[in-house]
Amino acid sequence: MITIDALTVRYGSLTVFDGLTMHLSEQAVHGVVGVDGAGKSSLLRAVYGIITPDSGSVTRAGHPLRRRDMAYLEDEPRFYDGLTGRDLLDLTAHCHPSSDPAPYVRLFALPVDRPIAAWPAGMRKKLALTVALMQRKPLLLLDEPFDGLDAQSLYTVRQLIAQCRDEGSTVLVTSQRLATLEPLCDDIRLLDEGRVTAEYRRGEYARAAGELEKFFARHYLTCYHGKIN
C-alpha cells in the first residue's frame, strides 16, 4: 500500500493541500481527475519530492517512498538544448541497464536522430513518456500523459500503462478529462481545490460522469452570474 498521509503543501500564503490523504493499492492504475488549478500537478510533485510538503508523509508499506523507486512524467516535458532523441534514450538505458527503448521507438515512430528542439509538441510528449515507461519503476507518476496525443498514440499509451501494471507497477495518472481515464484506471478520484471530493471504482464511472457534469454546471453558473451581477 502506498499512503499519502495528511499532506499539507503551501506556496507562501496559498494552501494547495491541507491534510490530503489517499490510500493507493499496489499493482493498480489510480486516476486523478480535476480542472486546472485543482492541485493535480502539485500532488505528483510532492510525491516525487520536487516539492517539500509542509507536513504529512508519503510511504510505501510503511516506509518512506524513495525517489529511486519512482519514474515521473511532468505535464510539460523539458529537455536540454542540443540533445537528440537517441542521446536521451541512450542515457536512460545507460542509467537503467535492463531497459530497452527500441519497442517504444517503433510504436511511436520517434525521429531519434533529430534534435529534440525541432520535434513537434506531441512527439516530445511521446519521448518523455518513453523515458518514464522504459525505466520499469515500482511507481509511475504520470501528469497529463494523454495531452496532445493523437488517437493511435492514446491507445498505445493506455496499453503500455496497463502492461506496466500487469508487470507489477503502481501508476498514479492525472487528467483533466474523465473519458481519458475510464478505459484504463482501477479507480478514479476527483480532486477539487486540493481535496479529494469523490472516489469511484470500476462500474461507477457512469455515475462519476453525471456528478462531474453537475459539478461543471455549478461552476459555470457561479462564475457566469458572478460576472454579470
| Main sheet record | 6 strands, mixed
Oligomer kind:
single chain
Which structural class is indicated by helix and strand composition? Answer: alpha/beta
- The string of secondary-structure elements, in order, is EEEHEEEHHHEHEHEEH
Radius of gyration: 18 Å
Find the count of extended strands (DSSP E, 2+ residues): 10
Main sheet: which strands, in order across? 6-7-8-3-9-10
Beta-strand portion reads 25-35%
Determine the fraction of residues in helical runs and give it as a percent range: 25-40%
- End-to-end gap: 49 Å
Q: Count of helices?
A: 7
- The mean pLDDT is 90
Low-confidence stretches: none
Fill in the keyword field for this structure.
229 residues, alpha/beta, four-stranded antiparallel β-sheet
Give a summary of the structure in a few sentences:
With 229 residues, the chain is an alpha/beta fold. It has 7 helices and 10 strands. It has helices spanning 40-48, 85-95, 102-108, 121-133, 151-166, 178-181, 205-228, and strands spanning 2-11, 14-24, 29-33, 55-60, 63-64, 70-73, 139-143, 170-175, 187-192, 195-201.
Plain-language structure description:
This protein has helices at 40-48, 85-95, 102-108, 121-133, 151-166, 178-181, 205-228; strands spanning 2-11, 14-24, 29-33, 55-60, 63-64, 70-73, 139-143, 170-175, 187-192, 195-201. It is of the alpha/beta class and 229 residues long. A hairpin with a 2-residue loop joins strand 4 and strand 5 (63-64). The radius of gyration is 18 Å and the shape is globular.
